[in-house]
Amino acid sequence: MELTATILDLDLDIFGIAVEDVGKTVELIKAKGGKVTREPGPVKGGSTVIAFIEDPDGYKFELLERGPTPEPLCQVMLRVGDLDRSINFYEKAFGMELLRKRDNPNYKYTIAMMGYGPEDKNAVLELTYNYGVTEYDKGNAYAQIAIGTDDVYRTAEAVKFFGGKVTREPGPLPGISTKITACLDPDGWKTVFVDNIDFLKELE
Known about the structure:
Elements: E1 3-7, E2 14-19, H1 22-31, E3 35-42, E4 49-54, E5 60-65, E6 73-79, H2 83-92, E7 97-104, E8 109-115, E9 124-130, E10 145-149, H3 152-161, E11 165-172, E12 179-184, E13 190-195, H4 196-202
Parallel strand pairs: 2-5, 6-9, 10-13
Antiparallel strand pairs: 1-10, 2-6, 3-4, 4-5, 7-8, 8-9, 11-12, 12-13
């Protein structure tokens, strides 16, 4: 089963965007009337300069200071209740790789970066475990993450085999014939897998 790292649809609370100068970007956002909820500074327990902003609908963006990158949309963060369980699921069911894992006991959280290629060239999932928190209220704003796949039928089989819940059996969407399947991870986060060839046809 071959999956790609195309993230097609992002409707959730926090995702990261890489910029070369977080301070300058924040000043521009302020000048345009944007809301800054965390001023630029190093991440807790690390050295990467970050800031948090919100769009007019209240969606949170994390700005991360990095050098030039071909993919500015760099990460999507999901909070999970059991990090090892989630790592295993995304490795086995989604075919992702654990790119790095970091524990920060001073601030009581552990993160795991999951993806289909290096962080500096691909969008990745940041799985965040906060000590002692096993469940989250997901609200009603989050929709889904979409990932391209070469075979939605085999993808659905893999998701089921490794403990995920398929919420839409694989097959074409009415009206446009693009084949998809939808599933939930062990924490209830929804992902839609889209047939790569069908999706490219939609762009024609």
